Amino acid sequence: MSIIDKTLTSFIDVAADSDFSIHNLPYGIFSETLEGRRRVGVAIGDKVLDLAALEEAGLLKLTGASYFDQPTLNSFIESGRQNWSTARRTIQDLLSADNATLRDNEALKQKALFNQSAVSLHLPLHIPGYTDFYSSKEHATNVGTMFRDPNNALLPNWTELPVGYNGRASTVIVSGQDVIRPSGQLKPNPDERPIFSACRRLDFELETAFVVGKPNHIGQPISIDDAWEHIFGMVLLNDWSARDIQKWEYVPLGPFNAKTFASSISPWVVTLEALEPFKTSVPEQSPEPLAYLRESKTKNTYDINLSVELLTEKSDQPTVVCETNFKYMYWSMAQQLTHHTITGCAVQVGDLMGSGTISGPTPESYGSMLEIAWNATKPVAVGKGETRTFIEDGDTVIMKGYSEKEGVRVGFGEVRGKVLPALEFDFSN
After folding, report:
1. Backbone angles phi and psi of 85, in degrees to 5
2. What is the model's pLDDT at position 1?
3. Annotated catalytic, 126?
4. CA distance to 76, 176, 398, 402, per residue, from 383 (Å)
5. How confident is the model at residue 2 (pLDDT cuts 50, 70, 90)?
6. Cβ-contact 31, 118 below 8 angstroms
């Protein structure tokens, strides 16, 4: 039996290919001007519904305090699952074609509905911590094949645990914010000392990330059976990577400056409730995970179509360079969260957990330029007669994602970022 109510429609005109149907209602932070008052909204079609205005009008009442006249989503998320569900049901009801409360209130619609194109969207969360995983078997195998032994591409621990590292929450940025090409130590010649230079191999990594919605106490791991209760929703993530800086610095402690300069996320947080109809199963895990990582739920991931487009300064239209799906990920979000906390690590509301690069089984589904151009040996055709092996100054990377079933679409919108030239340094003084 379908859990999608196809009879549910909105009085707002929503295009059939819109990511933001009444079945979605993702949360974000917006303001009418760039420096204006920030508050919580939901996306519906090409509109933003101001939840602070609904709260002020007495139409959106939740247990506890007021949550939507806030510059981040954290207070609302921290209020708990009961409020998440109540808010979703109330907003869906107010937006439905059959409910006259908002539909026929012209004054309130003038106050509460804005065109998305006319507002500024902001980082939706205060992010206390950011962790990035490495959970695509295809991606890990491709990287291991390129840089190690093709016959032993995966390190022995990879199929036993969700590998990850702790990144920098301070440089998580929202879609639309430019990215300055990083500079650092490179070692282009193995027989010579490293040099200081602008990154020459700038890459994207197509990822999603989940938002922690419920904390745990230090010393108290989150069990695999409870892990889903600690996740609020998901965003798209571009984990920008400086491959040449990374190659020199990552031994022996892993990613550092090659990953800390920018991580871009989409402005809309799609809730797990909205994604519920699109659940599916992770690939077969062999060997069977240790007991603490074994999930009782067979449907423990999501069918989310993902793509990457590259727009060069010489082009009028972007070129699609990748099409893949989140369902290829080997480790589930619950397994990632449980493993992250198994030693007693505490997570907080708003913490961001990146999936790792999402690559599929074919070259068209590889989730990074490192793989698509196979370490710069297979240039990719983009734009008007141009090619790319890595990202160049002036390029804009656009990532999109959506789920679709029975004619119902729930999407993330996009995360985009344009690359600006590296800063100039003068070390003569």
Report:
1. -70, -40
2. 40
3. no
4. 43, 21, 14, 25
5. low
6. no
- Mean pLDDT calculated for residue range 47-66: 95
Segment 213-236 shows an average pLDDT of 98
SS3 for the chain, per residue? CCCCCCCCCECCCCCCCCCECCCCCCEEEEECCCCCCCEEEEEECCEEEEHHHHHHCCCCCCCCCCCCCCCCCHHHHHCCHHHHHHHHHHHHHHHECCCHHHHCCHHHHHHHEEEHHHCEEECCCCCCCEEEECCCHHHHHHHHHHHCCHHHCCCCCCCCCCCEEECCHHHEEECCCCEECCEEEECCCCCCCCEEEECCCEECEEEEEEEECCCCCCCCCCCCCCHHHHEEEEEEEECCEEHHHHHHHCCCCCCCHHHHCCEEECCCEEEHHHHHHHEECCCCCCCCCCHHHCCCCCCCEECCEEEEEEECCCCCCCEEEEEEEHHHCCCCHHHHHHHHHCCCCCCCCCCEEECCCCCCCCHHHCCEHHHHCCCCCCCEEECCCEEECCECCCCEEEEEEEEEECCEEEEEEEEEEEEECCCCCCCCC
Amino acid identity, position 159: T
Instruction: Note the pLDDT of residue 64.
Output: 85
Active-site annotation holder among 23, 122, 139, 339 = 139
- Segment 274-300, tens digit of pLDDT: 999 999 999 999 999 999 999 998 899
The pTM assigned to this predicted structure is: 0.97
The phi, psi pair for 100, rounded to 5°, reads -85, -10
